[in-house]
Prior knowledge:
Elements: H1 3-19, H2 29-44, E1 48-63, E2 74-88, E3 93-107, E4 118-129, E5 134-138, E6 144-146, H3 154-160, H4 182-193, E7 198-205, E8 208-216, E9 223-232, E10 237-248, E11 261-270, E12 273-289, E13 292-309, H5 326-332
Antiparallel strand pairs: 1-2, 1-13, 2-3, 3-4, 4-5, 5-6, 7-8, 8-9, 9-10, 10-11, 11-12, 12-13
Helix pairs in contact: 1-2, 2-4
Amino acid sequence: MNTRRLLMTVLLCHWSSVAVGQSDLTVDKSHMSGLFEAHAARIESWRQGDVLIKVKSSGSGGLFGVPPGPDKEELLTEEAGYTRFIFDLDQKKYLVVKRTQGTATVFDGLGNQLGDPVKAGVNSVGIYDAERGLCLLKRSDGKVQDLMRIMRSDEMFIGMAGVNSFMGLGFKPQPQEGWRSQFTIWQDLSRHGHIDGIRSIENVGQNRYQVLSVKELPGRGPGGTRVITEWDVKRQVPVHFTHYAGVKSDPEKPFSVNPQASHLAEWGEFHGEWLPKLARGMARQAVLFQGKDYGNKLEFEIQVHWFSLNQEIPDEAFDVEVLRDVDKQTALLDPSCFEEK
């Protein structure tokens, strides 16, 4: 048993022993900090896997720096697509197949459409295999690029290939966006779960606790970030996340009431392990479109279907022939697994 799995086993066994014989758990800062740590260890134990990720989003927002009126343009966006991600983090072997379609439409301040909607999409396939020295990415234009010489790390490849940060469901500000490594997620959980960063804990339901965490920004006066997470302490998973950024971090002082991001997360049991399954939420972000900056409020839904976890991935899963086999790519993105059984 490796160090990661040993740590996760010890931490989760501790929490399981706390839960025995109790219908509603009572926690303090020390216990809650331990739960953050246990969850980080759980995520770090996901070493091999095969997942299909479904993402859809819609956003709207006005042009920055323009007061309300006829000249206040509004950008509406929609995007939907699928990503198949087969990974072996220990062997540094990955396959990413991604297809998305989206549109962007601009309206003036009176609701009149300005020009035709702009369509865009992604149709890409990537393979990374450290042992074979492979780092190939087939873009939407059909060209295959060999990126091994410029790729600084396998994590960089996963991000460039467009894998969503599904491992951070329940705790990542914008899980529909690009890849964040397990180490980065661990850093987030460690920062906000540190006993000195936890300001308050509130029981909000049976086995449900809401945690307010604060991170000060040195040299920024009253600046900081404030995170509110809700945990199912029986299953030991985060189920609701709200992030306030660039605001006063002290909850006793005035602060913005509009969160930077928020989402609900659902978990499913897969071979005895609780795994991220679904997230719905919103995120505020700046969008550059046709040379103009818009403040977009994005609503998103991300679903994850697990085909395997911590099982050996066969070598043929990383066969370079998939770069040319469109039928194989289509089969890997078959959405029928998301249909109601």
